[in-house]
Fold:
Amino acid sequence: MKTIATIILLFSAVHLCAQTDPVSGKTPGFIIHLTTMNDNMLKGLLLEVKDSSVLIYPGKFKEWRKGTKYIPVEFGYSNIRELVLKRKYRSWKKYDIDGSRPLFNELKKTTK
Amino acid sequence: MKHVIIMHLRFRSFYLLVLAILVTLQTTAQNTSDYSGQPQRRLNFMVSPKQKKFDWATSSFQLQAILMRKYHKKDFHVIIARSSKEMAKQVTHILKRKNAMIGNIWFDSHGHFPRRRSLFEIGEEEFNSHIIHDSIATVYLKKLAAYCDSNTNVGIGSCYGGATYTLPAVENFPAQRMNGDSLMIGTSKLFSNATVYASESFVMTGLGIMTANYSLAGCPGRKKFKDPIYAPVWEKLGEWNCYSGKKGKFEEPVTVSLNQDGSIYVKRKNYLSFEKNKKKLSKKILLFKRGNYNIGNLYQIE
Structure:
């Protein structure tokens, strides 16, 4: 019983230490490589997929953990050509959006 | 008779030798002090930032400078400082002790492309075209003005430190001029109308930077630099602007190098005047691909 209690205590401590996202209150789950309609590349962490845009933290996980404060960047679907997402321990997944709404909605479903 | 001629020749050569020594002594004396009694001895300084985290470029520069200092202890000093206050304190201490003036001063620093402006740093303090005119921010640099004149050379050793081009608009960021010329003019005024050299393009810190060759010019190999965003920088590879405070105008662009004693040396030919370098550059420009540069870096600044 004592062992279980200790494990629970340790887990709760780890949860408290983890950095939380100021926008959604969660640690970002995806690394994102976004290609804009002008073919520029933005690398960062996916904070949130909104109705018609994505919110990105323009830094790395290392910087996130350190608590480096960067202003999140918002990109509307009309300015996104392609998105590549990666979850921890999973492979890269590519989404061709090409500035279209239906394709963006598909992304919303899969990231929920 | 023959013996007399030999004696006469020996005496003549001895006389010539004495005359030569006297002439040399006189010219040396003229170099060390002028008629007004002002100190004329010139010292060279290399100012580099004290690192918190290991940085390969800065470490390489510091190591090479320290190595060269071993062979030129009289004229060359390496200053590793955290701020302009610390730097000014060390430099003025040396100058006062040796009763000398600044001959050449080189500010080794990183340039920051995402900030989209020309700048140089001393420790963590940034000096750009706006800050250089701020009397409070430059109060410690101003202390060095007393040891500078129009014969002093100042080198801004940061990438894009003297950039005059306008960077094209990227996503939410409008087109922006780098204003390296304003930074150079401001620096010259700050250092008593000194001559200022600053690069339009990259400043390399590979091996042999202080051997008066083209090692300060060149291009980096990393993929992120091979993006059309960097095109204006690549087009001016190895080009340094020179602002003469004495004449109050910009001279012809040159390629700059450093001598072993830390003095700034202007190469006779520009880096891109060599066919080999031109070909290399045109090959690399063909390989440019949009998307190699992470524009997230630009958003990190705001």
User: Anything to note?
Assistant: The first strand of chain A starts at residue 30 and ends at 36. Helices of chain A lie at 2-17, 61-66, 101-111. Chain A has three helices and six strands. The CA atoms of residues 57 and 65 of chain A lie 12 Å apart.
